[in-house]
Each structure stands twice: as C-alpha cells, then as structure tokens.
Specification:
Elements lengths: L10 H58 L5
C-alpha cells in the first residue's frame, strides 16, 4: 500500500482545490462588479440630492436678499 507523504498530492485534492479556486475567483469578480455598480448608483444618487439641496438653498438666499432690498435686481 502506497503512503502519500504530501497531503495534496492526490489528483482528487488537486481537482478539488482547482475547483474551489475557480469558484473563489468567480465570486471575487462578481463582488467587484456589484460593488462598482452600487458605488456608481449611490454616488449618482447623492450627487442629485446635493444638487437639489443647493438649488433650494440658492433660491432661499435669493428670496431673502430680494425681500430685504427689492431693487437688488
């Protein structure tokens, strides 16, 4: 009976480790793709919110200046 001195030397272990490595790389690539898309979406959403807020703030400031001095424009 042959005794393997190296634990991962059998073909079964090599195939199993290769399979797990391929699956792990696939999960990693999918994770990167999802994170990039989510990041783009969240940044775009936050950018739109800040633009809306800045427009509202500019309108409030302009109205306040106009109410104090109607001849400003």
């Amino acid at each position: 009976m042959r005794i393997n001195k190296h634990f991962f030397s059998s073909l079964r272990w090599k195939i199993a480790l290769t399979y797990l490595l391929v699956i792990g790389i696939g999960f990693f690539m999918i994770n990167l793709s999802i994170m990039q898309n989510l990041q783009k979406y969240l940044i775009k959403d936050r950018k739109i919110d800040y633009q809306k807020y800045s427009i509202q703030l500019a309108q409030l400031i302009a109205n306040d200046y106009y109410n104090k001095d109607p001849n400003i424009f």
